[in-house]
Specification:
189 residues, 7 helices, mainly alpha
């Protein structure tokens, strides 16, 4: 795992301490330490998915795709910075719930409002695709950031270096997630 300075995220801090740090200085977190890697990947993947699903439905839907891309650039970088702030927080399960639950709920509320204001059509279809993508991508991004990938700032690698180790990190994350799911089902059985 790559290192990061204490200003990025102290090692092993509690979820409460990480949350307090985020609330104390959101400007530095979301603007100064804007996670451009997350912004780029979020806009690219979400914009493409949104476009494939709704653009065939006309100009109003295409307007929605444009709104989605711009929204994801802004939100993706801020959200990436927030995930990065919680990547070393303990307990990991609580940080994961926060990253995969609370952050997406607030993001989708804002996303819906922007699409409505932009008079996009087929919002429900786009929102369903977006919510499905969010749950998976939030957990994947969080797992990758815990491994030092897709982070920005001091101690981070280039996007190219992240991409070179990404396949192995994704495969390992899937194996770890699978083992965790099996443990849960064994306890339930």
């Amino acid at each position: 795992m790559r290192g990061c300075s204490s200003q990025c995220e102290p090692l092993g801090e509690s979820v409460g301490a990480a949350f307090a740090r985020v609330l104390r200085d959101p400007w530095t977190l979301c603007v100064v330490n804007f996670n451009w890697k997350a912004a780029l990947l979020s806009a690219g993947f979400r914009g493409l998915l949104y476009a494939v699903v709704v653009i065939p439905r006309g100009a109003g839907a295409a307007r929605g795709a444009c709104i989605e891309i711009v929204f994801r650039i802004a939100l993706g970088g801020c959200w990436g910075s927030l995930m990065q702030a919680f990547r070393r927080a303990r307990p990991v399960w609580l940080a994961g719930i926060l990253v995969a639950g609370l952050l997406p709920a607030s993001a989708h509320t804002l996303e819906y409002a922007l699409l409505k204001m932009g008079q996009a059509t087929h919002i429900l279809t786009g929102m369903i695709v977006s919510v499905i993508c969010t749950v998976g991508s939030a957990l994947i991004n969080f797992a990758l950031m815990r491994r030092g990938l897709i982070i920005t700032g001091e101690g981070s690698a280039t996007l190219g270096a992240d991409f070179r180790v990404l396949p192995a990190a994704l495969a390992d994350s899937v194996l770890v997630a699978g083992a965790g799911i099996r443990r849960i089902f064994r306890k339930l059985a």
